[in-house]
Amino acid sequence: MLPEKVSVLIPTFNNEALLPDLLDDVKWADEIVVVDSFSTDQTVAICQARGARILQRRYTVSAEQKNWAIPQCTYEWIFAVDSDERVPLALQAEIQALLANGIPNDVDAFRVARRNFFLGHWMRTMSLYPDYQVRLFRKSVCRFEEKAVHAHMQVPGKVLTLQTPLDHYATPMLSKQINVLDRYSTYKAGELYAQGKRFRWHNVLIRPLAVLLYMFLWQGGFREGFRGFFVAFHTAAYVFFTHAKLWELEWRDGKRR
């Protein structure tokens, strides 16, 4: 098997504080492609100084942004990574070894476990680990689902698992977490409405509480202390606001009084 080259794909928007470390982590790549949503800070300048190729496009949703950029990458293999993630040395070495040795034709992608860190703490409970993500994939056959939130990679062929995890550092600012909650619940409500789903009372009265108790007690979130409670509450609030906004969409269209 012949050695493979790889393009690293990084979506960005005003990530100047995060990018230097990430760009150092992927400097071994044959190409770094940044798809930027017209940042107003030094994001683009930092990426250009490190030799990255810049694509710019107005942001809609994450999956659409990445699917637009994928065909514009030069090489068949793409390693997609977000600006708030880090690629440990062991993972860098593992990917480089795979590419150097060649990859079988029946393998279309590799998934990687992700260690999620919140307020400096590795979150091991509540399904936050191993949190597998498909991140190394063939350009010619793989695309993200057409979903507004939490879209998965669609892979027609075999998916193998890398041995070393990727590290994800969620923003330590609670105010930003709340902004993310507002944005994602809006996206999800619109997606549900477009699918013909309709508001049900139990989704705002019972389901959020059930999610909170399930994550914090049954899935062991209490072992993470306040961080565990915050993540469980944040997820429950996401469920509540998603369905409350679904009610709002119906009201705006005259389907609710």
Automatic annotation (TrEMBL):
InterPro entries per the UniProt record, alphabetical: Glyco_trans_2-like, Nucleotide-diphossugar_trans
First and last residue of the signal peptide: none
Residue ranges of every copy of the Glycosyltransferase 2-like domain listed in the record: 7-126
Pfam families: Glycos_transf_2 (PF00535)
Transmembrane keyword on record: yes
Keyword annotations of the record: Membrane, Transferase, Transmembrane, Transmembrane helix
Record-given protein name: Glycosyltransferase family 2 protein
GO molecular function: transferase activity
Membrane-spanning residues: 228-247
